[in-house]
UniProtKB/TrEMBL annotation:
Recorded GO MF terms: lyase activity
Keyword Lyase listed: yes
GO biological process, one term: carboxylic acid biosynthetic process
Keyword field: Lyase
Family: Belongs to the class-IV pyridoxal-phosphate-dependent aminotransferase family.
One term under GO cellular component: cytosol
Record's keyword annotation contains Phosphoprotein: no
Protein name in the entry: 4-amino-4-deoxychorismate lyase
Amino acid sequence: MSLPYTLLITPLPADAPDDGSWFTETFTEVEASEPALRVSELSTQRGDGVFETLSVVNGHAQEVQPHLARLARSAEICDLPAPNLAQWSAAISQAVARIPSQGELAIKLVLSRGVEHGPSPTAWLHASAASDFSPVRQSGVRAITLDRGYDRGVAERAPWLLLGAKTLSYAVNMAALREAHRRGADDTIFVTSDGYVMEGPTSSVIIRHGDVFSTPAPSGAILHGTTQRSLFNYLERHGHAVSYRDISIEELRTADAVWLVSSVRLAVAVIELDGVQMPVDAPLTELFTEYLLSPRD
Ligand code: PLP
């Protein structure tokens, strides 16, 4: 079957019996040219839903369980019914069996609040060719820092901002990328109004000082990235020190290397920050890419 590949999913309760055999009855394959969603769908009307994007490399879906765990966490934060993870896992397996087994593809999982006044959530899976990140994996990116408008304590003070959930409301994130382009850069690193590093609009930030790798603590104000976690496990296995902590803008500027990491982009070096050249660790970037392209569960 060719790309894109779409499955509409009738979401089952989290505690539905898990014998697996009947999950396929809850999936409907949809032709790319066919209408699939209603106009009153709240995901499109209000961005009211959650999603995950995972990478499929040469037929292997990467880090399925961490992505599903985050989908469940996002659903919980947004008061959506808990997803049946065995059902989602079966949907991913069905998609992987139907899509090309070579190259880098992306699978997006969406769980929306459903149609307005409707009885249940809407869910679907969409597989497509991944954007080609190989040029920036080689060249790196120029990033700017942008004030996210919140201080470090925002997540505890205002949980209704849903900052720790991967919601469908990405208009702000996309605006931050356009602002980077307007300023002649490629990407953005959000910082808190009190001067601490958060994340990129579609990535986590990892910095290296000497042999210590750090990332902002997942305080609830940022997404806890599956790629960052996977890289920290890899680094720890290879004897490096890793730390979750508050990182000031000054520490970002004086880092020995900075990466933006995410599931489909993998690891991309920041070569310039706010117009100032940054040191680049090319061998480690290459090693990260190699590791992230290897089959990971
Ligand atoms: N932070 C944000 C806001 C993101 O949108 C993403 C991914 O799209 C990430 C972090 C990185 O998450 P992951 O590594 O799980 O793809």
